[in-house]
Amino acid sequence: MLAHVNPDGDAIGSSVALSQFLQKLGHQVEVMVPNDFPGFLAWLPGASSIHIYDKEADLCDRILESSDTLFILDFNQFSRAGNIKKKLEQLQTPKILIDHHRDTDLSLFVGALSETEVSSTAELVAETILHYGGQYLDESIATNLLVGIVTDTGSFAHSIFRADTFSICAKLIEKVPSYTKIHQMVYDTFSENRLRLLGYAINNKMEILDEYSTAIISLDKEELARFDYQVGDTEGVVNYPLSMNKTRMSVLVTERQGMVRFSFRSKGDFSVHEVAQKYFNGGGHTNAAGGTLYCSMEAALDLLHRVLPEFKELLNKE
Ligand code: 5GP
Ligand code: MN
Fold first, then answer.
1. Per the confidence metrics, is the pTM higher than 0.90?
2. Are residues 10 and 149 in the same domain?
């Protein structure tokens, strides 16, 4: 069971839930991610047994080589497998995809559950479990799935394309003692530094380009270090500029080890997937996408400003 680099709530929640379900059916299953996941997911039941390739590459290689099936969850391009990418390309092991991203190359997989009109991979896993083995749904599986769905929808604020999302969640919530508690465990866990970084990002670093209905926040390594940046601390920052009526697209640009990461969000039918795919080695969904450039922060921001005019008309539509 393999999820994407920089794993988020959906990557972790969906893969742990599916592994627990398959274990109940008698299969031997291991969950693996390329690098560490944010601390606000560490409490999830089963998260402690996830293998992190960064930390134990040899063991992970042995697991990958001895597996007879690989499940690929919450990503559809091998480039999203981080440091496992090469291994994944070499392995002849049959691969099964469960994912909700666009532009899937189905020829890479022996089987695929690839749906873009669902909120999350966790929703797809939940629907599958409810359909084939609802009797196996327990508190642990339901908790993991709810976290996947709640994080990928920004607490049911976006990426809801069908009413079924709610009926599936209703069945999951029946299995947990308190949905409110789950929400708190995910969202009310900020360190003081993280909240102050958010304040700084919005107050000091948000650039508004009215001409393009766009907001850009950039945070370089020095700024992140100043707030004692921990994995996951910039999660969600990109959403805030969209809360202004006038904003159609929001971009968060962060400097990482030897690279620059882009997070794109949009409202309505403006597709940040197209922007991320065309210019930033990335992709994702219509309203949420990401990308990576291996260049300086200055060059990254320069490119971003240079591509905006191409999208001006679409950004200002309606
Ligand atoms: P985030 O901004 O939260 O990192 O990512 C937003 C969405 O875009 C997520 O659904 C994520 O899976 C997708 N995404 C992020 N980075 C990349 C990337 O580099 N390539 C592709 N294809 N999708 C990405
Ligand atoms: Mn997802």
1. yes
2. yes
